[in-house]
Amino acid sequence: MRLLPLLLLVICSSWVLLQSAADARRTLAEAGAARRPRVRAVSLGGWLVTEGWIKPSLFDGIPNSDLLDGTQLQFKSVARNRYLAADQGGGAAIVADREQPSGWETFKLWRINETTFNFRVFGNQFVGVDSAGRVVATATTPGPSETFQLVRRDGDKNRVRIRAPNGLFLQAKTMESVTADHSEDTNWGDDDPSVFVTNSVAHLQGEYQLCNGYGIRKARQVLRTHWRTFITESDFSFIASSGLTAVRIPVGWWIASDPHPPRPFVGGSLQALDNAFRWAEKYNLDVIVDLHAAPGAQNPYEHSATRDGSQEWGTTDENIAQTVQVIDFLASRYAKSSSLLAVSLLNSPLAPGATLPSLTKYYRDGYDAVRRHTRTAYVVMPARLSADATELLWFAGRFTRAVLDVHYYNLFSDEFDGLTADENIDFVRKNRSSDLAAVTRRNGRPLTFVGEWVAEWNVRGASKRDYQRFAQVQQDVYGRATFGWAYWMLKNVNHHWSMHWMIQNGYITLDSSRSRAIVSPLDGEQMEPAAGRPKQDAVQVS
Ligand SMILES: *[C@@H]1O[C@H](CO)[C@@H](O)[C@H](O)[C@H]1NC(C)=O
Ligand SMILES: *[C@@H]1O[C@H](CO)[C@@H](O)[C@H](O)[C@H]1NC(C)=O
Questions:
Q1: Which domains does the chain show, CATH number per domain?
Q2: Which pTM was predicted?
Q3: pLDDT reading at 353 higher than 90
Q4: Cα angle at 140 between 138 and 144, to 5 degrees?
């Protein structure tokens, strides 16, 4: 009978042991949600979404290539010595009475062909000619009466005249009124009220500008050659042999309607993306497909493929639904690939329509679209450029295999003006560390991804050693992101932005023994490969 208490004790303690084993398993299971490759990726920027600064020669063959969609011009009447302005910013007359040009004095081009344009004003209306021949900015969409020809003076392309749809030229007869009634004749002199001097104050060189600048036929040739030559199989071989584990591939929304995307975009980028997956599989690299340019444009930069800087993304349910369809298309096409690691839902959202509610609605729907095709792919949810990334923590943390994406540049903000190399390095070590720590949860919900960084800064005359230290500190700090990081970008005419150049010239050194690492968030113990497919067996101990 004395056995009974002993038995009870054994049962109880086994129960306790079993419970703690269960707890441990649960902890591991939670960690399992965070099982992951620690990604070290490079973005294939400038390949399937055009950015002129990455490869300026792409635009060389466009006639009047300084007059592309979104180019912002100001016009000074030489006779009045005043700038044209859209009175009230738009919705009223065009006047010629401004001494200093600013927003109301700036006109954005919509290019019809190399000499023919619409002019969009500050308030988004288009310049046109009313029935009395007065020049006004009242049309909300451009038609024939909003279509003008820019006639440049031979040998002085900043001196222009503007031919109205009625065949006559605009003139600033007085400061208060601009009319379309000057004859063809001109001596281009400073007394001619139909002559204007232009200032070009901004321009864009994105996919829209390239395609519309060349026109469909020529754009197709130029881009197909670019897609075939800018990134090739040998780049994938180089990437794999450098110790990188993945490529992040920016794509534009029009890829989902390949081979016949809406004007002016041209088909063929899907074939290039298919090739990328084939090469990734061959060289055992992961792929993060990144929706970089969403319908309507989610930021005003050329990499959103905006026409003129306007950013309409997120303003309607239809627009969000269309974006979800693009994600659905990409997930369904590549779900079967052993290289599909992640789908990134929307690069650098900044548009006014990207409010927290519309963005989270889109992320939820985009997540579901990915999950309809794959249970294992990660879903990357980029932070808004204008907001603190922690705003998405609670939201993203509710999804399995969700990744919060932050971009860390020591650029694009005047807080970096005048910092020395050491101060920049310190900023990464301290400030970026704490930024990253603030969004990184130990349980990996969500995982964190420094989806863009670069070893470039505003420091003048930095030495190679400075760049090496800067690249290294970023690898060290961003290596703590629980999903990983991606360098922006593989190739660029500006050398520090080219990881290819930086690696080949010894500015960036990656420890290749760390490639395709799998690490547990708890203790560095090796975990199952995230996507359930063979990986190299290296373990990264952070
Ligand atoms: C540009 O378009 C206008 C209006 O459609 C047309 O009259 C003109 O001939 C075109 N010019 C060129 C160079 O194609
Ligand atoms: C970096 O963080 C320090 C405090 O940790 C702060 O004083 C400093 O202003 C921050 N630097 C920038 C440029 O934000």
A1: 35-57+207-410+443-456+480-532 (3.20.20.80), 71-202 (2.80.10.50)
A2: 0.88
A3: yes
A4: 85
